[in-house]
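Sample intake sheet
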Amino acid sequence: MIDLHKRDGIWSVTLNRPEKANSLTRDMLNSIVAHARAAAQANARAFVLRGEGKVFSAGADLTQAAEGLAVDPIWEDVSGAIAALPCLTIAALNGTLAGGAMGMALACDLRISVANANFFYPVMKLGFLPQPSDPARMVRLIGPARTKMILMAGAKITAQEALNWGLIDRIVDICTFDAEIDALTRDVCGASADHVTAIKAMI
């Protein structure tokens, strides 16, 4: 349910559960953590998160969420492992991003989206707290008022709104989506791992 493809220092991790809107199980989350830590050890130049199908991720698997996954520390492990990567990290959002899956996208350096994606994080409605690091990361991107719009008022925002707010960095046509991600990783692919790490550290 998590596919890994490595090419020229680019690690592509794909959520591959399209029949369930790529909802995340504990095993899937553990796999993402393991891949992120392995990428750091392997001096990867870029780490790209993708979704299979028409949705990036609907968040936690509903059955496992009811059994405690919704409040499990594994979500922080995922976003922390991604945030700690010394390479370029990209959330390639092929569709809607919802719930706990927001944390892994917020932890990335860049968020690239298709035009028909929606973004929402219904923790107020569902009675859960967001993962601890998510509000601070969201505030840094879009400010406190808009963060409250999403986390407290339950706003579901479009890709265009997300771009205007600064939640995502670029909207790309689905037909050229893969080519755009490849273009964004081209320079780091041709650089040394130390060079990639040094520039990211300076930023």
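Comment: The chain has one domain: 2-202. The mean pLDDT is 96.
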